[in-house]
Fold this protein.
Amino acid sequence: MTSDGRGQTHGDAARDPDALIRRAGASGDPDRDQHFLVDDRVVDRIPTYLPEDTDLSHVLEIGGGPGVLTDRLLDVADRVTVVEQDRTFADHLRREFAEEVEAGRLTVLEGDALEIDLPDFSACVSNLPYGISSEISFRLLPEGKPLVLMFQKEFGERMAAESGTSEYGRLSVSAQHYGDVDVCEIVPREAFDPQPAVQSAIVRIEPRAPDYEVDDEEFFLDFVKALFTQRRKTIRNGIRNTPHISGLSDPDAVVEAADEDVLRKRAGNMAPAEFAELAQLAADVGL
Ligand SMILES: C[S@@+](CC[C@H](N)C(=O)[O-])C[C@H]1O[C@@H](n2cnc3c(N)ncnc32)[C@H](O)[C@@H]1O
């Protein structure tokens, strides 16, 4: 660790994004979710969004590309593992950061982040391939580690949305079940090359032990999904209409046992803790 306590430093200066892309020998292909960060100021800020007391012993990055974020992560972390599916960029990362690879400070895993065995990591910081935002998030969230992730703006805002807003939905409840979710920054299209069609958002997820119990995590997530397919209906009707999604064998028993105030609500007005309490009851009497 350096004197500022934020990990080791490497090299003298941050590598220039344009030079990194040139040395990779390939430009980004939007069809492969390759939108590379070229705005140094944004890249510099990303690691600073990690919660203060984050353990930086082993930071995971999904989708390294030319390595501009990898470079900054090596500045703050003791060790970095980067997963990159595209061989051209995986090879480039190994070449570009050969010293760090040699020193055991950087591991480059070539493969699909949805399929590959992920290492134990202490935090994850990534400008994600947008096409796998949802699936990779739900691989990372249950690990209970701090995450700083770049998403498409609308996706990030839905993840962080509060109950009662139009963006609040299944994604918000499921993500906030694992931690406190904030949008740290909206990033304009111009910060990337090639530019994506829409703006992006940097989102922080700070893990938190839930202040409620969920014994059957899978049922909880299915139950939330089921109720949001009926978001305009009351919870009472939502429970009755969706046993094929929630897996409940006796939805009427759940309706009979649940609190009348809750049954009158709609999914968009239920906080994650209220969903969890209802799911716990539903699992007990209706599964
Ligand atoms: C949005 S770019 C980010 C690149 C770099 N971190 C940056 O910020 O400039 C996403 C990267 O993820 C890679 N990628 C796409 N799908 C992937 C997958 N399923 N698993 C691992 N990497 C993937 C792409 O090749 C690309 O390099």
Summary: Residues 32-37, 62-65, 68-69, 83-86, 89, 112-114, 127, 129, 132 surround S-adenosylmethionine (CB under 6 Å). Residues 1-7 have pLDDT under 50 and may be disordered. The first strand starts at residue 36 and ends at 37. Residues 217-286 form a domain with the Helicase, Ruva Protein; domain 3 fold (CATH 1.10.8).
